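From the thread on structure requests for the teaching lab: each student submitted one protein with a one-line request. Submission from student K.M.:

"Model Succinate--CoA ligase [ADP-forming] subunit alpha from Nocardioides marmorisolisilvae, tokens only."
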Amino acid sequence: MAIYLNSDSKIIVQGMTGGMGAKHTTLMVESGANIVGGVNARKAGTSVELGGKELPVFGSVAEAMKETGANVSVAFVPPAFTKDACIEAIDAEIPLLVVITEGVPVQDSAEVFAYLEGKSTRMIGPNCPGIISPEQSLAGITPHTIAGRGPIGLVSKSGTLTYQMMHELRDFGFTTAIGIGGDPVIGTTHIDALEAFENDPETKAIVMIGEIGGDAEERAAAYIQANVTKPVVGYVAGFTAPEGKTMGHAGAIVSGSSGTAQAKKEALEAAGVKVGKTPSETAELMREIMKNL
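Reply posted by the TA:
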């Protein structure tokens, strides 16, 4: 089992013919993910060879789905066009939409988020590394060589910390690692992923990585306390951040005690989550849990 993405997933890439799209489509093909085509209205009817695979280019997500049976789209579309690309994919009822693009205007993300209401599409991102179910599939930019399959589920706001945690726990491996992105408005949340991992029989324990700003981690703590029976360890990036400063990643802002790493750590610990002060300490906490499972 894996959450949201598995070996049966058929993936198309919106923006496949662009620089970033082509580069990462190649890496996804090389990882063994089943990439079945791309979308670029201006290049419809052509094909490109990426990663040694000839991939057709379609004029729309709907057409790509009809021709290939695709059920996942990964969007590498410039920020100015990301909203339209998302709406096109949602209208086509693609089950999973992974939006990698960084720098999407918050207003656009909010409009897409509102548009998702009542629709059948699950969106991950924007501004995220996407999702990997090791040895099964990859939709995004996470290097597939970091870790193999195993019993740990990982959900993270930060791309680089996703990679670091996968590396630290590579001897155990992962069912799925999902980078949800650090923007103020995102599709899939910590809570969504926690629920999916809780319901996945192969996931035995969960790592949750958050960061300062907002209250997502506090809400996740309350959810864990009420609904999650599996062991969870956590890490909150930003313990050394000065209060009242807007930090770079996602423009996380800390005001007073709410949104600080310490406040989030306390909320998580109150819910029974062990929280490390560093990523390595967090990995060590997970090792202890894995030894005793």
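TA comment: The chain has two domains: 11-124, 146-292. The CA atoms of residues 214 and 259 lie 5 Å apart.
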